[in-house]
Amino acid sequence: MHIIRYHNTPLYNPAASFTSLRSEMDRLFDAAFPTLSSLQRDGFFGGLTGEFPLDLYQEKDAFVVRAELPGFRKEDLSVEVDDSVLTLTGHRESESKPDSKEKNGTTATQEQRVSRSVSLPDNVNVEKIRAAYENGILTVTLPRSEEAKPKQVAIEVK
Amino acid sequence: MSNTLTKNEPRELAPRAPRRTVIPRYNVRETADAFTITAHVPGVDKASLETTVHGENLTVSGRRTWSVPEDWTPIHREITSDDYRLVLELDHRVNRDAIRAELSQGVLTLTVPKAEAVKPRKIEIVG
Fold first, then answer.
1. In chain A, which residue ranges form alpha helices assigned H by DSSP?
2. How far is CA B59 from CA A23, A70, B24, B86, B94, in A?
3. CATH code that applies to domain A54-147
4. What is the pLDDT of residues A81-124, one digit of tens each?
5. Is residue A40 a contact partner of residue A46, using CB atoms and an 8 Å limit?
6. pTM here?
7. How far is CA A52 from CA A41, A113, B5, B42, B86, in A?
8. What pLDDT, in 10s, does the model give residues A121-150?
9. Most CB atoms closer than 10 Å: which of A71, A150, B14, B123?
10. Do A136 and B30 touch (CB under 8 A)?
11. Extents of the domains making up chain A
């Protein structure tokens, strides 16, 4: 026999009270540390950081680089070749909207720059590099230069 | 869906072989009258993205439409070929009939308006 009866009644639902406790703690935390939560909202944890994934392929006459760079404007992407190093850079400035629930009320401009470099083989025709941006994927096609393509030599069989 | 977006292959999201999915990187922001959800779904175009509301769940599924051409040799790969799937639970605070979706360069923006009952309002004093 128990001295204190354990009430497993619908009034006490452990799962539900945990949820409300957690949301209450989230609320308290947000209220106490607005800057941290605004950083989180502005992508400090969720946004792109210094790197982004990329793929490298070899096509018949070219090398192809594909990079995941979602949410940029075309003019904010740059593709540069310097001394056989290909550099892809994305840059943007996001201004927090005045109607968003900023606790401190500042409209800070946040700058974001992401960049990756790939060293290129010697036989790339730098003049003919093309780049396209579609569905958040930047595709750079690097044609191989003529002289480096495998030459077809017909050898006569005697 | 518009046929102009259709390329060579049929684009319907009808059952295919089950593919692996990943949760896209996403953010939820709250404004006075809506929640704004942004999800990164690079490689997905409008025709292969689907946003559905079923009961409590808001589901975003996006299928990657690009696949490596047969005569290409991968040298180095970091981009996953998994499709995207994000399920979020909606509660009574939102107006689920007025959700808007917009896709731009691999970023999906969902605007989920708040229900009238939870919007801040001013009560006029009568008398």
1. 14-32, 34-41
2. 23, 20, 12, 6, 15
3. 2.60.40.790
4. 988 889 999 998 875 554 444 444 455 667 788 899 988 888 88
5. yes
6. 0.67
7. 20, 11, 27, 11, 21
8. 888 888 899 999 999 999 999 999 876 555
9. A71
10. no
11. 54-147
**Contact yes or no for A101 and B40 at CB 8 A:** no
Chain A contact set for B107 (CB, 8 A): 70-71, 136
B75–A63 CB contact, under 8 Å? yes
B50 belongs to a structural domain: yes
Q: Is residue B126 part of a domain?
A: no
* Beta-carbon contacts of residue A111 (< 8 Å; ≥ 6 apart): A91, A92, A93
| H or E segment to which residue A82 belongs | strand A77-82
**Residue B123 included in any domain:** no
Residue A99's pLDDT is what? 44
Asked if residue A40 has pLDDT above 70, the reply is no
CA-nearest residue to A102 within chain B is B31
Residue B35 inside a domain? The answer is yes
Query: What's the CATH number where B49 sits?
Result: 2.60.40.790
B55: left (phi over 0), alpha (psi -120 to 50) or beta: left
Q: How far apart are CA A136 and CA A97, in angstroms?
A: 23
Cβ pair A135:B30 closer than 8 A = no
* Domains of chain B: total: 1
Structural contact between residues A43 and B26, judged by C-beta atoms closer than 8 angstroms? no
Candidates B30, B42, B78; nearest CB to A70:
B42
Number of C-beta neighbours around residue B29 at 10 A: 16
Q: Choose the closest CB to A56 out of B71, B75, B104.
A: B75
Q: Residues with Cβ < 8 Å from A35, sequence gap 6 or more?
A: A104
